Amino acid sequence: MRIDAHHHLWDPTRREQPWMDGPWADPIRRGYALSDLTPHLAAHGLDGTVLVQSSSSYEETAELLTLAAGEGPVTGVVGWADLRDPALDRVLAALPAGLVGIRHQVQDEPDPDWLRRPDVLRGLGIVADAGLVYDLLVTPRELPAAHAAVRAVPQLSFVLDHAAKPAVAAGDWQPWAGALTALAGLPNVSCKLSGLVTEADWDAWRPQQILPYARHVLEAFGPNRVMFGSDWPVCTLAAGYEDVVALAESATAHLGPAERSDVFGGTAGRVYGVGTPAGQESPSTQQPPSTQEPPSTQESPAPQAAAAPQESQGR
User: Fold this and answer.
1) How far apart are CA 189 and CA 75, in angstroms?
2) Is the CB of residue 290 less than 8 Å from the CB of residue 260?
3) CA 23 to CA 27: how far, in whole Å?
4) Per-residue confidence of the chain (315 residues) as pLDDT tens digits?
5) 93 closest CA partner among 78, 84, 81
6) Are the CB atoms for 37 and 232 separated by under 8 Å?
7) Which residues contact 154 (CB under 8 A, 6 or more apart)?
8) Alpha carbon 292 to chain centroid distance?
9) How many Å from the N-terminal Cα to the C-terminal Cα in the chain?
């Protein structure tokens, strides 16, 4: 199964999206339903999706799970839960089937060390006990704390969203690249090849500005720990669905068929337990991660000229 491992659905008339905190969000400040996404999936041969929370509410999580239980391409939901809740184990046990992971907008926490807090680490342990995955929504600022959390809870499978959102528009490479490589050295974390286009200049980005970041993700984690995600509809701030698919295809063009199959479905299927029969593994899981890189990815990308500062918006 080919899987889009990261997309959202929302309706601002039903529930506020506090992260839409300025005029920049006006183009996506409307409702997005599954019927809006399915034509894009069909056009690119994507069979299933992982639907990810955008609001810190149990109500939204319950609605997403109801949607996933119906007919359609959603194979699993990454919902929200309060990691600091003393009753978290009971809360998770009460949620319906279809929940595959938990996520919190760590990037919005004032404390860059939020993931190191004892109550948060306790909650991550409970997520692991529940057999769920934890999605890390962090920026380079929170990467050190994310690294500490992944080490502290080795029994939990983590997924790094949007490659920790490197500052593509500014052309920044370090410390993001080194911190990403260090995180990839831990075996219980995978990474989504997603959200990079909205870290670039929305109006003037070019593939050659984004591809070095994408290929560094593939080199650091290996294709069997990387999964494609569109970050739709947030991606539409900068690009169409077809553009993010084309970027991912360009980034993986040097890989073999089995490795590309991992990125476009196999990894998501194994990590989230969706899309493939239980216990079935992609053939490439028996192979070492690819480290073959095109010559252009061996150097840090050049800073982009006159790139206007913009807030990181991938979700």
Assistant:
1) 21
2) no
3) 8
4) 999 999 999 999 988 899 998 999 999 999 999 999 999 999 999 999 999 999 999 999 999 999 999 989 999 999 999 999 999 999 999 999 999 999 999 999 999 999 999 999 999 999 999 999 999 999 999 999 999 999 999 999 999 999 999 999 999 999 999 999 999 999 999 999 999 999 999 999 999 999 999 999 999 999 999 999 999 999 999 999 999 999 999 999 999 999 999 999 999 999 999 984 333 343 333 333 333 333 233 333 433 333 333 445 556
5) 81
6) yes
7) 186, 188
8) 23
9) 24
Of 186, 194, 133, the C-alpha closest to 164 is 194
Tokens linked to 212: 């070095």
C-alpha closest to that of 262 among 280, 242, 244: 280
DSSP annotation string for the chain: --EEEEE--B-TTTS--TT--SGGGGGG-S-B-HHHHHHHHHHTT--EEEEE--SS-HHHHHHHHHHHHSSSSEEEEEE---TT-TTHHHHHHHSPTTEEEEEE-GGG-S-TTGGGSHHHHHHHHHHHHTT-EEEE---GGGHHHHHHHHHH-TTSPEEEGGGG---TTTT--TTHHHHHHHHHTSTTEEEEE-S-GGGS-TTT--HHHHHHHHHHHHHHH-GGGEEE---BTGGGGT--HHHHHHHHHHHTTTS-HHHHHIIIIIHHHHHHT-SS-TT---GGGGSPPP----GGGSSPPPPPTTPPP------
- Distance in angstroms (rounded) separating the CA atoms of residues 143 and 136: 9
Question: Nearest Cα to 151, choosing from 185, 176, 117?
Answer: 185
Q: In angstroms, how far is CA 170 from the centroid of its own chain?
A: 21
